[in-house]
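Subject line: Sequence and fold of a protein, written as structure tokens
Enclosed: The protein record, placed directly beneath this head.
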Amino acid sequence: MKRKALLSIVPFIIALASCANGGHYNARSNPMDSLFASGSTGKSVFQSSISLNSDGLPVYEHIDIDLTTMNATMVFSQVSDMINKPSTYTSKIVKVKGPFRPYESTDPNSCYPAILVQDATACCGNGLEFLLYGVPRCTMQGGNGYPLFNEEATIVGRFETYLEDYSLYIHLVDAVWLKD
């Protein structure tokens, strides 16, 4: 399964990244590392603005986009719109349910955790990547705080984008796995 790039706004994002970084932009850096405040805890750089429950997990009292209440056609359409117009969804709280299907990473000890979002005919799926709050990197088999491969999971997190190799990707950060 290939990850979809959003190339139309990449030059703008690169320009912003260059300005924010004193004119220096390193597209070869691992975007997963930049999302972790301490490198291995899985807590994002946004952790200071999150209210936590007694277990130390983010609390999301309001869901902006609940993909779990939509039919397969609407879910696929909504995720496609999120891919095509990410700035519309930035910082929105999203809830999604589906099988855990991580993407392979160039790092053999890591992966890109994702929930598979299938269309109504089950021919064309997209993966919605996520990073669980406070959980280290995942493996292709899952576990270590992540669902197991192909396990049905419900995830809630904040929608954000990141750059990797000059391509823009979407994912949910500060995510929580809602276990039944």
